[in-house]
Amino acid sequence: MTVQEKLGQIQQLTWTGDTGPGGGQTEQTEAAARAGLLGSVLNIHGARSSNSLQRIAVEESRLGIPLLFGLDVIHGFWTAFPIPLAQASSFDPEVARLDAEVSAKEARSEGVRWTFSPMMDVTHEPRWGRIAESCGEDPYLSAAFAVAKVQGYQGPADGSELSRTDRIAACAKHFVAYGGAEGGRDYNTVDVSEQRLRNLYLPPFKAAVDAGVATVMAAFNTIGGVPAHGNAHTMNSVLKEEWGFKGFVVSDYTGVEELIAHGFAEDGADAGRLALNSGLDMEMVSTNVADHGEALLSDGQITMERLDDAVTRILQLKFDLGLFDNPYSGESAAVAEPTAAARAASRASAARSMVLLRNEGSVLPLSPAAGSIAVVGPFADSTRLHGTWAGPGASRFPSVGILDAVREAAPGAKVTHAGQDLTLAVAAAAAAEVTVVVVGEDPGLSGEAAVRSDIGLPAGQEELIAAVAATGKPFVVVLVNGRPLVLGDWVDSAPAVLEVWHPGIEAGHAVADVLFGAVAPGGKLPVTFPRAVGQIPLYYNHESTGRPYNPAKPEEKFVSKYLDLADGPRFPFGYGLSYTTFAVSRPQLSRESIARDALERGETVEVSLTVTNTGEQAGDEVVQLYVHDVAAGIAQPVRRLRGFERVTLEPGRSTTVSFRLGAQDLGFWTNDPAGTFIVERGRIDVYTGTSSTTRDCSPLTVV
Ligand code: BGC
């Protein structure tokens, strides 16, 4: 390869060119493909159009190297699954695996070989719109979902299935700490200690790399003043050297160019130099490395060795994907719409992702034999509940409306409807046996560059709930949203509240499945719901202050609290109810102490507990395991999730759930930039229960 061909190979251009600052690249893209000066194209899909662009690269360019087509397939291609935050609420990584498998099949048949997913940014910021794409505030949960998604897209870690026609390459993004954006403002500054980087933000990425993720995407933020796109510590030292990552790192959209706006690079040449030398391998949309690479090489500012390394990593993936043998997609084999099986998978996933926040007096489940049901609110008949970044299917295939699905589920009932008009809604509610009030956020209010400073229900919706409540008739609030919301005090008196997030293409069916009890709700919150915006950031895995708030002494003055707000969240991490009730025993440990060197040799402590369905109906419970190192060289979070299992139990039945705690669970990363993980001697409190506020605890001592 000539130097220009190498520089071209590490360049990605967009096809439609209508989505960002680098817009309108279509002609440039085709010309670059013809000249053999292009490695990858994003935003192209459709077997026919991707094949015709591929033909230019393969048949007309000097070396005939095939292009790699990438697309954001985030929670579905044709078949929109629930948003990733919803999926995390299922506390069942199989949901994410299923989404990835269905997505891979559909996308691959339309020429896509690479998705920019999974997003695995842990975040404590509900104002940040991209929380919808994330798995919330916990690194352990996020890692479990990241692994399931990588496996669902790619197959096994050795890459042996990448060339199959139902597999695509995955991309772990955004590397790293993007979820730490100050004020929740997208793309904003992040300044974290090394220990927080390693204990909070990096674990999902490490897990994804261990699962064989083919690529990693750099993040838009700075980390301690150094933009992620020019960050040699995170890309070179941690990702490539420490973790031995063999795939390639792609920039985010114009992320290399943005090194200039960050105040980190002087000009395009400087940006290209900094990015490549820091470990970035492919530039998306902006063209700084390609434009200045030759001059940088001849000045000795970048090396041929580094350039060859980047090219090799990219070509290796093209070989692994089978692109050299089979660069085209079968045009007749395209899966042109959601299949019945894919819809069923999405519907089951959405129902599994719903979280019952309240159910006083057992309003839910609704009876399919109800005589009359009113379905009101701005999203009652919406067919646009796919969620942010739902793939090309979202514009072709409407989501199932909740109103229609309620009519289907209760064919004998008189089902009436009113939107957000208060008078009509009140009349409908007053005349019905029960009312379903569907409120929340339009999907456009979450996702990239969709940040809100006020995360309450949008204007008029609380008034609607209050007006329905004033009728004195039973009602259920169904929340459709892409982030945790600050819910008003109405929550404390609403008979029932069901969090359904943005449920995907089968939205209405899945909501009706849960409302009428065909599916028992069993999801749990993967994020804290604050009481007020002023409390943010508020998250369960926080450290203790020297003066923690004591609920037994609310009058204490010099403690960490707000004068004007009750302590703690509205709903905590890990919380969620069921239509039945469960009893869980205290955790039993297989031993009370364990030697540090035994842990280092790989020995573990078994933690077990019994969970019993004490109610009248079958249901799901998510048993959760947390640890707290009570005195550590680096103060540890008051709770850290280290295990979870979702179980289904018939009434009266019990099961024993066991977890294993090893060095990974009991130790932590220090502030050593070279990466030191230690397990200290001392007491660790081991908690089990059904939310992060559990008090069931058994002590374990590391000796
Ligand atoms: C987003 C990425 C995405 C890329 C390509 C960027 O704006 O931050 O998550 O993969 O665009 O569409």
From TrEMBL:
Chain ranges of the Fibronectin type III-like domain: 621-692
Catalytic activity: Hydrolysis of terminal, non-reducing beta-D-glucosyl residues with release of beta-D-glucose
Assigned keywords, A-Z: Glycosidase, Hydrolase, Signal
Superkingdom of source: Bacteria
Stored SUPFAM superfamilies: (Trans)glycosidases, Beta-D-glucan exohydrolase, C-terminal domain
Any GO molecular function: hydrolase activity
This protein's record includes keyword Hydrolase: yes
Gene3D superfamilies: Glycoside hydrolase family 3 C-terminal domain, Glycoside hydrolase, family 3, N-terminal domain, Immunoglobulins
InterPro entries: Cellulose_Degrad_GH3, Fn3-like, GH, Glyco_hydro_3_AS, Glyco_hydro_3_C, Glyco_hydro_3_C_sf, Glyco_hydro_3_N, Glyco_hydro_3_N_sf
Key word DNA damage present: no
PROSITE patterns, sorted: GLYCOSYL_HYDROL_F3 (PS00775)
Assigned EC number: 3.2.1.21
Similarity-based family: Belongs to the glycosyl hydrolase 3 family.
Protein's UniProt name: beta-glucosidase
Species whose genome carries this gene: Streptomyces sp. 900116325
Source organism phylogeny: Bacteria, Bacillati, Actinomycetota, Actinomycetes, Kitasatosporales
